[in-house]
Amino acid sequence: MPIDPATGLVAALDIGGTKIAGALVDGEGRVRVRSRRPTPAREGGETVMAAVEAVLADLAASPLWETVGAVGIGSAGPVDASLGTVSPVNVPGWRDYPLVERVRRATGGRPVTLVGDGVAMTAAEHWLGAARGHANALCLVVSTGVGGGLVLDGRIHPGPTGNAGHIGHVPVDLDGEPCACGGRGCVERIAAGPPLARRALENGWRPGPDGDVSAAAVAAAAQAGDPIAVAAFERAAQALAAGIAATAALVEIDLAVVGGGVAGAGEALFAPLRRSLDTYARLSFVRNLTVVPAATGTDAGLLGAAAAAMPPGAGATG
């Protein structure tokens, strides 16, 4: 079914280690219908797929479903857009999982476009957010993991498999801890929410009476001036800055957009991130690199997945 050029209505899926979100999105970036399920990340692959199908069933129950012409998926990675498969680091039950074919089957044969979650967030920010109008930018998702995507010469650059810009698995600590990806000392292993919170606990931070040991709780403590929580965010910011500076040196970006749950810490993250960038980004052609918060919020993955599935001229950027 072709997409109506007046609305560009597509079904979008945002699949991560903690939640599976779905929406029907029009060509102006408006979310018309939405659904959400927790990701059964420690269960088998078919259990995870059942949660995806439940989200799709919620969307298909809408009277707008008949106008949907395509499906876009932004998934935790790595993904392989050329094969239509996903192998999310944080979802062990999916390894080379044929997600595109399964979603195509579940949506009545509609065309399906797959990108990594970082590329999806980048597409959203370039279409409607903080990277709009920028020709060369890196966009990051800092949450349960760390993903990223690139805008080069005014266009989203997903790469052959849909993983280009995946800053989370750039090594920044040569003697660092092993990462779930099989590498060592990756940005994600230091800056993502779970390792950030774990580092704070290991260094003596203690949660409040509610017992919350999440990165959000560490962020609240850092905002209140707790020195151990502040140090945990400084370490995470240093890892992010090293990865951003390396990316800038390679492809000459002038903007880094940071979103995701950890970025919700605000200046607890962004202040040390800017300071660390001053240390790492010293070459003349990267020195003016700007770091800003993402603008598309919690809908970034959905909007970016929708953008990936929209044809040129339907509303999303290329």
Automatic annotation (TrEMBL):
Annotated InterPro entries: ATPase_NBD (IPR043129), ROK (IPR000600), ROK_cs (IPR049874)
Origin superkingdom: Bacteria
Classification via PROSITE patterns: ROK
One protein family per Pfam: ROK
Family: Belongs to the ROK (NagC/XylR) family.
Annotated protein name in UniProt: ROK family transcriptional regulator
